[in-house]
Amino acid sequence: MAAAARGCGGVWRRAWQRGAGGPSPAPRGQRAVACNARGGAVPAGKSGLAPWEPVVGLEIHAQISSNSKLFSGSQVQFAAPPNSLVSFFDASLPGTLPVLNRRCVEAAVMTGLALNCSINKKSLFDRKHYFYADLPFPFIEGQLRVDANVSVHHPGEPYGVRTEVKNINSIRFLAKAVDYEIQRQIEELESGGTILNETRAFDAKLGCTVPMRDKEGKQDYRFMPEPNLPPLILYDAKSLPANMNHQQVVNIDLIHERLPDLPSVKRAKLVERYGILPEHSFTLLNEDGLTEFFENVVKQTQMKPKKVIGWILNDLLSYLKQHSLTLKESPVSSFLLADLLNLLEKKEISSTAAKHVLAELWKGERKTPLEIVKEKKLELIQDQKELEQICQAVIDGQENEVMAIKAGNLKVLNKLIGLVQRETRGRSNPVVVKQLLEKKLSQ
Amino acid sequence: AALKRRVRFQVSAALKEGHVTPTELCQRCLSLIKSTKFLNAYITVAEETALKQAEESEKRYRKGQPLGVLDGIPIAVKDNFNTAGIETTCASNMLKGYISPYNATVVQKLLDQGAVLLGKTNLDEFAMGSGSTDGVFGPVRNPWSYSRQYKEKSVPKSHSEDEESNWVITGGSSGGSAAAVSSFTCFAALGSDTGGSTRNPAAHCGVVGLKPTYGLISRHGLIPLVNSMDVPGILTRCVDDAAVVLGSLAGHDPKDSTTIQDNFTPFELPNLTDVSKLSIGIPKEYHAPGLSSEILALWSKAAELFKNAGAKVIEVSLPHTCYSIVCYHVLCTAEVASNMARFDGLEYGHRSDMNKSTESMYAATRREGFNDVVRGRILSGNYFLLKQNYENYFIKAQKVRRLIANDFVKVFRSGVDILLTPTTLCDAVPYMEFIKEDNRTRSTQDDILTQAANMAGLPAINVPTALSERGLPIGLQFIGRSFQEKQLLTVAKWFEKQVKFPMIQLEEVKRHDHNAFQHQKSASFS
User: Fold this and answer.
1) What pLDDT is attached to residue A241?
2) Keyword annotations for this protein (chain B) (predicted)?
């Protein structure tokens, strides 16, 4: 599946007229294999030329999640032993024929719809003849592979010759590779050179692209239609003939109905329902199962979702990342976390204490938050008199600070509150303590 | 009784009534195969498994629970169909010793019906040829070479060697299957038909050869020549038998995406008596260069037969017929080049000892494994598929193919039900004469009358009509509408009844029959 994106105007145009940003290609006159460092020499007098418009087409290979292969009935299984999932067709035994996997077609349609593409109603299969054993290393299961096709042209003129850039292994490198290649092509053309319709490899270390196939000329794949697979016709409610067996047919509209909420819709719903920030919704969706976790906690606690989200994203998630755990592997379940947050919400513990309890829960010793609170004596002191005594004791011991406060320096109050916290080993509610101190100091 | 000479229906009845057991039938066929070994019709005879299958069938008959009409019936299968546990060679060094792990769908269907698989029959290597002379196991001999009818008509010679040098070809590429049926070693055989490979040998061997509509019968397990034209073919001694075999084979196969999804209902052929509602088309282009005057006369006589019986017989035109051979050449070789690419010596089949590099191993394997004919077609095909040639050759040929197919559409739309044409240009030629020309030349000449039906995917059938002046069979061909096999076979059956083609009189067969012959009336044409 390929998605083409036109270079978006202003920023790129500006950048590429001046050759700014990123490593630039070798200056004119040299074989462009080694790449110059940043800000390398660009021939002078080239500014003021007509602007360039890059065109980028991304060829994205994503493996469809299916139980069996695309053209044979064989099972698919990650990391199965070599040659253990080979059907007669896979082994190219004479007389065997390809049979298209319906689930794969449906998945492809689903993906196309999710990406807001128009779905071609008719697709044809071709055979590609590739006789020699110099196949590129077969891509590892489950990873994304991207090839970038890049060309440049002046607006209003026909598209330029495109190059294909391979060996791009991350989104970050994709951006770098595309940027580099656009700049290389512009430099080449502005120096009077030409762009070859070739395949280039992205060199991640040097940050540039190099020609790939330097041996023979282009391969002639001798394409021809695949005679054993009739054209694939997809239908929608409008085009589906009445007498056709619906089991035999892939109906785009039905698949559309079955599409789950797309991410943008999901995120909007989360923001609306829970009052969380949009950036929070991104994180929730980007972690497998996190949305569900969050919603489960919200269901089980009286704490407002706006507050819950902080605990999820700052505490829970960072812990998981630190220990390279997935949500499934979390020793703290949504139930436990909700339990903890309830204690906090009911003001039975302070938030400091809550963090302490959480740290204990990570140990996965199957203690409930309440048990830990009791064990470590983390309950907030509820006894007003006890608190008053402690406050008084602190006031009595901090003459200078008291004087400063009474003189109008209210910030110093925080120090007193801090001292009370220390005395109570975090078992005092700072809001209550502040009130008590203020009351005493005003007397 | 002279069981072998009976058509299968009759044998079925005999089996059911216990007049003969499946084992007896099987043994007789096996024994006849042995004594007709000089025909070279079989590459592999699966004696053990056949007898086992016959035994199983016998058990079922004893219980009164036969699987169907085909239960216990000995059949043979062309050696380009996969048969599990039995060697499948395609008459090529490339697959010598290759034992497939699976049965072709059509083979499986026959076995599921209780048929007894006697063995794999000989063919041109990878089904490329029109003589069944170019396989690595040697040429197939037409049983009619040894018939009394042929011997009587040949120039009298005193030497017995002349019998050796005079023998005629079976036609091809399903010559082994045609010879097997013709010589009574089996009751039905599977062939394949890409350009006429079932109908051509059927005509030369005096048997019924049916090419079904493309998409009616599964090709899964048929080692492909041209995927877009290949069909499994059926060879029998009478049209009724062909209908029965068709009934057991036709229908959608999920393993073959080119088979149609519609339900297929097996049919019994009615005994047509009134042909007045029929419209028979006589395509004038089938009066092709090289058509023998004998066959031309027979063809006319057949047309008269229909006319006199009340049918409407009209001349029609299929104007693009003359382009079908060259069009076929491009499309066939292109698909061959592609299909043969899998034979690289790595996964199965022959592997050369050359091991300097992968590429040299590939090259040596393919040079050693394929004969000239196959290699020639691969080279041509690759040429036509090159980027710079694709438009001018492959695409052009596809367009011409469409025109050829449209010719038929137009004619059938104009009210014609069936087309009547010759099947071959002449009767079977002696082997010594046949090999004077190369395979390609021969194929070009011989395919002209049969090829177009493959282009258009239409059903066609050869019906043995009469003996030539040399005492050899001549057949005529009927071409029908897509998926209208019932109509096609009904008309063919009527015609078969009218012409009463004579039974072959073979010494070898006689020797096996201890009882009297069951004579058939001689054909009214001879």
Assistant:
1) 87
2) ATP-binding, Ligase, Mitochondrion, Nucleotide-binding, Protein biosynthesis
